[in-house]
Design goal:
The chain has 384 residues and is of the alpha+beta class. It contains 10 helices and 17 strands.
């Protein structure tokens, strides 16, 4: 018998990053670095109001500007008018109503970014301003009219475990407010779309976290078979969850297909804040029942996650939040109520931690309070 030894030099060794040399030498191409011959620039018109009815859109001023090649609205979407990772409730362009400040209404393609800016300024939109829903509690109690056909509650999740009547001598409670956070990745959103010569398909270079999910949603909106929508991952300058959702992919592809020319779109920093999802703001109430030696007997909690105008991944974020209520600590009994709501605030979705961060902030605050109430060291009580 012959025994062959295999030397695995990778074990215990540092692997060379395939993109490392190009990045340190400045040769790496991020999606924003890409260009194509005969390329047009694209830009998006966004709502200045958080909640309003669209009375009319006048595009004539934009069409009169030299260098403008295309102006599109919801009426020009050839396929499905909405998209979404879980629930397809977010419009490609707002049609009859805008539900958050910064929602896309129209897009233009022109020979220069400055021409695009002039074209956007020339579009006239008449609005009927409505009272926005900004407090998720009003979404829950029904005191504000529904802002969406599916209602203001994206998901309600209740968890009951063990004996909900259990009590203990030490009781601490608190309400924890967690604000919205932005991923603020260094490389803002950008895409380059190249139409097939016969207009039957599209190739899009884009910085994203989810190429195949993007393609599925894009194909529906473009009215094309999935195999006719080809996505190539451009260099990603950070993501942290925000690039899971569609941002400019559909808009760029629509403009390229309508003009028959390559189209590039790139957000500036301010538009990037409008153009992608954020971490969910949350209000979390918790009550911990514990023994005098710091052992948790029961947890009661109520969590409210503000999903903003559209659902994105809010239902999944909520599930992560409520199932991590107790954190890494043993607790035999729990009653948890969780809500993910729609409001006229900016849409929220994935960000590092995905709902667990908010729960962690609350349950660790509770552990600090429990340490004070029992007189036990803050580290020691966490180890019990």
């Amino acid at each position: 018998m012959t025994i062959t030894k295999t030397h695995r030099d990778v074990l215990g060794a540092s692997a060379l990053r395939p993109d490392g040399v190009a990045k340190v030498q400045g040769d790496f191409s991020f999606s924003s670095d890409l260009h194509a011959e005969n390329m047009l620039w694209g830009a998006t018109l966004r709502s200045p109001h958080p909640y309003a009815r669209i009375i009319s859109i006048d595009l004539s001023g934009a069409w009169k500007i030299a260098g403008v090649e295309c102006v599109i609205t919801a009426d020009d979407v050839p396929g499905q008018l909405t998209y979404g990772l879980i629930s397809e409730d977010q419009p490609v362009f707002a049609k009859d109503v805008v539900r958050y400040m910064g929602e896309p209404i129209a897009a233009v393609a022109a020979d220069h970014p400055e021409t695009c800016r002039r074209a956007l300024a020339a579009i006239k939109v008449e609005y009927e301003i409505l009272e926005p829903l900004t407090d998720p509690e009003r979404a829950i109690d029904g005191s504000h009219p529904d802002i969406h056909p599916d209602g203001n509650i994206i998901r309600h999740q209740r968890i009951v475990s063990g004996d909900i009547t259990a009590t203990a001598p030490i009781v601490v409670e608190g309400t924890y407010d967690i604000g919205m956070q932005d991923q603020a990745f260094l490389g803002t959103e950008s895409a380059l779309a190249l139409p097939d010569h016969d207009g039957s398909g599209i190739e899009v270079f884009v910085a994203t976290q989810w190429l195949h999910e993007d393609r599925k949603q894009m194909a529906k909106c473009l009215g094309l078979p999935e195999e006719k929508v080809r996505l190539v991952l451009g260099g990603v300058g950070g993501a942290f969850g925000a690039r899971e959702d569609i941002s400019l992919q559909v808009h760029t592809a629509l403009l390229a297909l309508r003009t028959g020319r390559p189209v590039k779109m790139q957000y500036g920093r301010e538009e990037s804040f409008f153009g992608h999802v954020h971490r969910h703001p949350a209000q979390i109430w918790m009550r911990h029942h514990a023994t005098e030696d710091g052992r948790i007997v029961k947890i009661e909690a109520r969590m409210v996650f503000d999903g903003g105008a559209y659902s994105s991944t809010s239902s999944a974020v909520l599930i992560n939040g409520v199932t991590h209520t107790q954190g890494p600590y043993q607790c035999p009994n729990a009653v948890v109520d969780g809500y993910a709501t729609r409001t006229n605030n900016p849409p929220c979705g994935a960000m590092r931690g995905f709902g667990v961060v908010q729960a962690c902030f609350a349950h660790e605050g509770q552990m600090d309070k429990l340490a004070v109430a029992t007189g036990i060291d803050e580290v020691e009580i966490r180890l019990r």
